[in-house]
Amino acid sequence: xxxxxxxxxxxxxxxxxxxxxxxxxxxxxxxxxxxxxxxxxxxxxxxxxxxxxxxxxxxxxxxxxxxxxxxxxxxxxxxxxxxxxxxxxxxxxxxxxxxxxxxxxxxxxxxxxxxxxxxxxxxxxxxxxxxxxxxxxxxxxxxxxxxxxxxxxxxxxxxxxxxxxxxxxxxxxxxxxxxxxxxxxxxxxxxxxxxxxxxxxxxxxxxxxxxxxxxxxxxxxxxxxxxxxxxxxxxxxxxxxxxxxxxxxxxxxxxxxxxxxxxxxxxxx
Length: 269
Description:
By secondary structure, this protein is an alpha/beta fold. The chain is about 35% helix and about 25% strand. It is built from ten helices and twelve strands. The strands form two sheets. A seven-stranded parallel sheet has the order 3-2-1-4-5-6-12, with helices on both faces. Strand 5, helix 5 and strand 6 (about 120-125) form a beta-alpha-beta unit. Helix 1 crosses helix 9, helix 4 (about 80-90) packs parallel to helix 5 (about 105-115) and helix 6 runs parallel beside helix 7. The radius of gyration is 19 Å and the shape is elongated.
């Protein structure tokens, strides 16, 4: 029996990628696709919007009706929308796959409360296999190298991305901090400008680039005395995030309510 999936933010580029991934996977079917009220694509066939043959599923702004038809929701939207969805889903015991980035601590806490209330939530700054393997390698490298190896996280995305650093950059920074046994919030340096003085040992720096149509480039640089180790990942198509989201939804089918990560899905922890 196929897993019935609803796609949130169906009118966006990730929404279209998620629709294609659901339609392509033999174990899933598109049950609904929804957008915010007043979105221009309301009423259009989701398959046509995603560049496929018609799927017989119209994009709607009736969120309650959409999730009533689904076993799982794929959600790459904005933090406020993801929190509201998590709260709706919590009482229904559905699967909620959250690829939304830019959440505040309060928004992350609200999502965690929804998981405690019974939702099966998989949330990650990046749904791709490669990035999550990269995070595991970064954690290992940070743990293995001496503190005199400075850690910098560099990322570049398309000109329309609205949050910085990216969720993936933060995921990689968290992995580095875990490897070092420190708290990222205490040691992160998000920007540098002017006369900064010497770099403080033990900090984790972030640099953000924006431009063009870049899907996502990430590199973690571990710079030590006379040598540098560079671990990197290049995303070439949004399909890799959508395929990871579908994989996460299928994985969560037999799991109890709770908050999970892609490391859980991939067995990396």
